[in-house]
Structure formats: structure tokens, C-alpha cells
Amino acid sequence: xxxxxxxxxxxxxxxxxxxxxxxxxxxxxxxxxxxxxxxxxxxxxxxxxxxxxxxxxxxxxxxxxxxxxxxxxxxxxxxxxxxxxxxxxxxxxxxxxxxxxxxxxxxxxxxxxxxxxxxxxxxxxxxxxxxxxxxxxxxxxxxxxxxxxxxxxxxxxxxxxxxxxxxxxxxxxxxxxxxxxxxxxxxxxxxxxxxxxxxxxxxxxxxxxxxxxxxxxxxxxxxxxxxxxxxxxxxxxxxxxxxxxxxxxxxxxxxxxxxxxxxxxxxxxxxxxxxxxxxxxxxxxxxxxxxxxxxxxxxxxxxxxxxxxxxxxxxxxxxxxxxxxxxxxxxxxxxxxxxxxxxxxxxxxxxx
Length: 352
What we know:
The longest helix is centred in the middle third of the chain and has 15 residues, at about 185-200. It is built from 11 helices and 12 strands. By secondary structure, it is an alpha+beta fold. It has a domain at about 5-80 and about 240-350: DD-peptidase/beta-lactamase superfamily (Beta-lactamase, 3-Layer(aba) Sandwich). The strands form 3 sheets. Strands 2-1-12-11-10-9-8 form a 7-stranded antiparallel sheet. A 3-stranded antiparallel sheet has the order 3-5-4. The model has no long low-confidence stretch (mean pLDDT about 95).
């Protein structure tokens, strides 16, 4: 599938304001299976932990630009922040897009990485596009199980934690660039550092000002807390905390094709780039799901795209229903498919 084959993203309804200051809130529209929806939510939130998918902390549904369903676990509310985990990768995609819009970055040019500048270094041809599509070929092991040797754990909490981009960029190639798909948090931090370099940012404070002034503030994401390493790099693979309603705002930006209240935040076609499938083997897709460019594909059903995070953090965009689903919780990895099935059941309640 090319970007030209993708279904058109929906426009904001003319009578619904963008939620820059506050979300419009209404009951689900006529035709929604509210009885089934309530049963699904009662089960997910009825106990602290369910056998099928562990803990569910928050679930929010936006349709036609309006919050139509919102529920939180006991002791939590709309005022609480939640971890992004790897949903931060999609935020990194947006930041890359803003610099692409301004002509400060070319995603098809070799990525900024001082570690790769040797004359015969085969990594020096790796592009930002290949990093964003998880096709760089770098030998990075992605595993969150503390019992197994894992590069992502070493990067975030071990010897790599003070300079996550340098740690990730120091790995050799396992495959030729653009020949093999493999999910890697390390590549996201290489991208994050490259974005800061393209911006000309010399400090985390300066980069955070850029994040807020160009992305978060224009769309009303006031509660976001990005985290930086000791080298000053935004840890764009994993660490950006926010409230569920603000994560929903981020989803709405992409569902509206990167335009917010008449202003283009992301370059034209950037949301389509996020949801255009990257070449993967059938085995990859069966095990991990489809992937675009720092967004996942198909987790909410055909033509959906999503930001996915460890332990069941999701922002799922459903263009055909003009719907966004935000879910936070603590789901063991082995129960991930149950959480995906739950989200698909919730989405199904809104289908005509």
C-alpha cells in the first residue's frame, strides 16, 4: 500500500471547536452500542486487575472531535498523568516532521550520527527515514525482560542511560540498511538527537522550548513532561508523561492530517507517511503487527494507525469512524493480544 491508497483522514466537524483549551464532551451518538460498551468498561474497571489484561487505568474515546466516553480506575482521574513509554516514538515522529516542514531536516539524507563518520563505515548511509521505519539494520536487541540480556534495558537504565543516542548509535550493522525491519528503541533516540542537531539546539531547555512552542502548546497539550538524559537528549524512545486528554489531543492532530484549527503543524502528507506500511516479513507482521514510520498499523482494525507503548499504553486512530481511543494501564506483555481485542471490541461499539 502506498500513501495514495490510504483512506482520507476526516476533517474537523464545522460546528465542533478544536480542543485547544477544553474538550467538548457529549454522549455517544445514536447508533452506538452503549450497552455493550458499558459492559466492556465495567469489566475492565470492575476490579483492580483482570485475568485477561491486567490493570486498566484509563480509557478515553473521542469521536467527531468530542469526548464521548471516559473512565478511570479507582483513585485516578482526568487530572492524573500517565507514562507514554513507546508512544513517545510517535511524538519524536512529529518533532521530525516540524523540522522537515521548516526545511531543517531531510529524512532521505544520511542521519546525523558522529559515530558513523569513518570513511569506510557502512552505517554512514543510514537515513532518518530508515530509522523512523525501523529499517536501519543496526544490531539492537529489543527485550524488556530483565532476565534476558537486553540492549533497551541497558540503554535506559544501565551503561547507556547518560547518553542514550550514543549508546544506540554505537551498535554495528546486523543487516544492510533498508533490507530488514526490526523494532528498536535505540533508533528513536538517534532520531531525537538528530532532530536537536537539525534545530541547532544546544541544551535540553532549548529543545523543550521548541517542543512546547511548536507542538504541545499550539494543540493544547499543557500537561506534557518530556524526559532528557544527562547528555541533553530527549529520550524520544520512551519517556514523555501526560494526561490522557492530552494524549488524545496528539491523536487528533494526526487524525486531522497535521492541521490544527486552520494551522498546519505537520507538513502535508506527514500523517500519511506515519501510516504507510513499511516492508515487513509475514512473520514480523504476525508477531508484532504492521508498522509505518514510528506508528503502528492495524491494531484497531483495518486502516487504523496507533501510538503503542509498553504495558498497554495506546492512542488508536480510526479514520473511518473519526474516532480516537486512548488506553492506559499495566498489561503484561504476554496478555497484549487480549488488550488489543478489548480495544477492537470497544471500537466496534461505535460502528454503525
